[in-house]
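Researcher: Let's try something more involved. This one mixes different molecule types, so please make sure each is placed in the same coordinate frame as the others.
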Amino acid sequence: MTAIAARMPAGHYRFRHAARMEWIKLRSLRSTWWTLVITVAGTIGIGVAVGMNTRNGTEDLTNNVLGGVVPGLLLAGVLGVLTMTSEYSSGMIRATLAAIPRRPQVVTAKAAVLGAVTLAIGEAAAFISFFAGAAALQHGIPSPGLSQPGVLRAVVFSGASFCLIGLLGLGIGAIIRHSGAAIAVLVGGVYVAATFIGDVSHAAGAYMPIMIVGNSLSTTRPQTCGGSSAACGHLLSAWAGLGMLCLYAAAALALGSWLLARRDA
Amino acid sequence: MIEVRELTKRYGSTLAVDALSFDLRPGTVTGFLGANGSGKSTTMRMMLGLDKPDAGQVRIGGQRFHDLRWPLREVGALLEARAFHPGRSARSHLAALAASNGIASRRVADVLDMVGLTSVAGRRAGKFSLGMAQRLGIAAALLGDPPVLLLDEPVNGLDPAGIHWIRDLLRSLAAQGRVVFVSSHLISEMALMADRLVVIGQGRLLADTSVAEMSAGAPSLEAAFLAMTEASAQYRAPALAHDRVEPAAWPPAISRNGASS
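Model: All components are placed in one shared frame. Result:
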């Protein structure tokens, strides 16, 4: 017994151990890489298509060529959900928690790894989308440049939104635990309900994640609202929008982490 | 040394584990016996801090599982076959677990060798047979070279050669001075594998004894187990049905020449 116990090193497991485990888990699934490739390719593809079909040079061209961001976010969110729920569907969660019994650390580690990956992928998707979409603009329409007012911010914030929606998905996954139900809540809450609420009330709609991404983060200037300028007054500024998205992700992760620590696994 | 004290777990109105207390000592294989649904798995999940007991506690070397410094190096566990992502290879699954507790990555190759999965370690584990999945679970339990092993039904899905292998493995791990706790509903298997037995029925401790003592007063260990668990058995339907059959109708008349009478 003493001989066996003596092999144990000093100290104890820490965040970096948990993060390393989560990084190996994420990268060792082929589905992760497919999801990320499709996310980037889809975002860029839609951006290029919108760029090619832009007829009016006075529109917010940056917003147009970032048109693939909102659809592309969906996969980042789904990846976030599955990062958590696949552990429950497979039973892996019990192996994970028997290795890292301090449960909030599991959520923090997952959030750090997923956040870093989706941020890197999101920024890549946003920047490539911006340059490719701008290059696809028709002759006679002036290409937007990163040095123009608000453009760099719009591109960087759009990239960051992949990370924040991914983290929101992770939080929803930790709360709901079932893949199908959690994806339904993510898609229903972020896309379907947002569109519906936006139609009913512009004021409430401005706080919906995809409205924030579409109307606050990925624009260089406030959207024109088809004449009814009163509605436009409710749109959040880019910084306020980014703050709201951070708040959503943080709230979902905090609740998910709290529930994980309380529930039987 | 593991101390389980007054462990209690309730699911709604069902008392799954009822004030269960026992000790596990180094150097012995302790069998955890009970009928299906008697609370074995619930007890093991509580020992690993996965389920919270409603009352009571478990101490591992005096510590709560939650407070262990390197859990995988202190307690190795097999709770269910296929507790891994089906899309991940056996090697990646073990590498992830090793990283979580700062275990050297060469240990992954070692345990894959020990359980005989080296040749399939790069394949998606979702394609594994139940026996291979069990071996991967055992590899994960051995990863941290822990002084304590908790294995829930490890022989499930193993072929006779596999059962023989795990029996020898667990006996040799105990001989090295480890605590080995193995649940099973296969009494014959426990007779060959275990030194001591913890027997439960409907969540309550029925016996905490040695294999020799338990089988002493009965024709076999199985007979002793059945006598002990009869009082707490949940499913006695066949016996009850048998009792209710009218004497005249039992046994039923069977025509030997093909025509029913």
